[in-house]
Design brief:
The chain has two domains: 164 residues, Alpha/beta knot, CATH 3.40.1280; 40 residues, no CATH class. Helices cover 29% and strands 22% of the residues. The protein contains seven helices and nine strands, in the order βααβββαβαβαβαββα. α3 runs parallel beside α5 and α4 packs across α6.
Length: 211
């Protein structure tokens, strides 16, 4: 699986990609993750990637030309048979675990990370295969959204998780020792008795009720 990230802030990803399971997956060659500096596809002295919005208004909008050049260059160099170009936008399709499973079957995803007031709509209309939103909120750019999608998709790649059952694990309430925690005198926070009972049928039902 290969992730290609088009961004004007590639260094944002340094810590994220060099820690924990993502780092191990790259070392095992389960994943290839590469950032691409959008300004490398500009032609002017100032490496301009943005312009004033047509029709007026505040802020700046990412230009279509450098994004088009970046994505097409990445595609030309790719050997992926199953690939998608994904643009992030608050107006996009909601990202879900089902979509993460679908994406995990691909060979490559190219992420376009916008900034400022947005991205020229022609990128969504003609270049991106899908426009995705990670939630009902607005981020400063697409970089954090790309991290969310990379992590959610990677979990479904065979060998990424230490235990395969962890991939589809229900998000139920969980406890560990000590059985009783007393943060102050007279206050006791207890683990539910059923979880200490050894009755796996009852424990399973309790977890279903606490998802």
């Amino acid at each position: 699986m290969r992730f290609d990230i088009v961004t004007i802030f590639p260094n944002i990803f340094n810590g994220f990609l060099s820690e924990s399971l993502l780092s191990k997956a790259q070392a095992k060659k389960l994943l290839t993750i590469k950032t691409h500096y959008l300004r490398d596809w500009t032609t002017d002295r100032h490496q301009t990637v943005d312009g004033k919005p047509c029709g007026g208004g505040p802020g700046l909008v990412f230009k279509v030309e450098p994004i088009y050049k970046a994505v097409t260059d990445i595609q030309k160099k790719s050997k992926a048979k199953k690939s998608k170009v994904v643009l992030f936008s608050p107006r996009g399709q909601k990202f879900t675990n089902e979509l993460a499973k679908k994406y995990s079957k691909l060979d490559q995803i190219i992420f376009i990370c916008g900034r400022y007031e947005g991205v020229d709509e022609r990128v969504a209309e003609h270049l991106a295969d899908e426009v995705i939103s990670t939630g009902d909120y607005v981020l400063n750019g697409g970089e954090v959204a790309a991290m969310v999608v990379i992590e959610a998709v990677s979990r479904h790649i065979p060998g990424f998780m230490h235990k395969e059952e962890s991939v589809s694990k229900d998000d139920h309430a969980s406890y560990t020792k000590p059985e009783i925690f007393s943060p102050k005198k007279g206050v006791n926070w207890k683990v539910p008795k059923v979880l200490l009972s050894g009755d796996h049928k009852k424990i399973s039902q309790w977890r279903k009720n606490h998802t």
